[in-house]
Amino acid sequence: MQNYITVGGRDYPVAFTMSALMNFTTKYKITLGGLFKLIGYDGNLKGDTDEEIGTNMLLNSSLTLEQIVEITKFALKAGANAENKPKDYTTQQVAALFDEKPGLAFEVLPLLILSISKVFTPQGEEQADGDDQKKASPAKAKAAKN
Fold first, then answer.
1. In the prediction, which pLDDT does 138 show?
2. Count of CB atoms within 10 A of residue 11's CB?
3. The dihedral formed by the CA atoms of 54, 56, 57 and 63, expressed in degrees to the nearest 10
4. Residue 17 domain-assigned (yes or no)
5. 22 closest CA partner among 59, 71, 89, 82
6. Domain region containing 57
7. What is the tally of structural domains in the chain?
8. Does 3 or 60 have the greater pLDDT score?
9. 126 in any annotated domain
10. 42-87: per-residue pLDDT in tens?
């Protein structure tokens, strides 16, 4: 699922694709179940707004700062590839985005959870909203699912 984060007035495409998830779990030698535990996801999005969902995810997460930056780096690369604009981000470049926009982690983690649920939803069970999904916030996507 393609989403965007805005930092310094610039939109960055992010996509927590199977490739991005695979790269992250391979780098840290964790299973899918281990990833769920690491990010504190128990199958439910807790909160009604993006901020609430992000706060709850961070509070329940065991991710290190490095891991938050790395999983975002893989998603940024996948997002750029999806738009046919391949870009390799360095860890330092991605960390700088977090420095430039305090609270960015509160935006990224809900997108990760929603993307994981999309990747592992059997075909035909997800709603086809077309382009509306691209810029949908986690809270709006959650509400649409319910």
1. 53
2. 12
3. 110
4. yes
5. 71
6. 2-121+131-145
7. 1
8. 3
9. no
10. 767 677 776 677 677 777 788 999 999 999 999 999 999 999 998 9
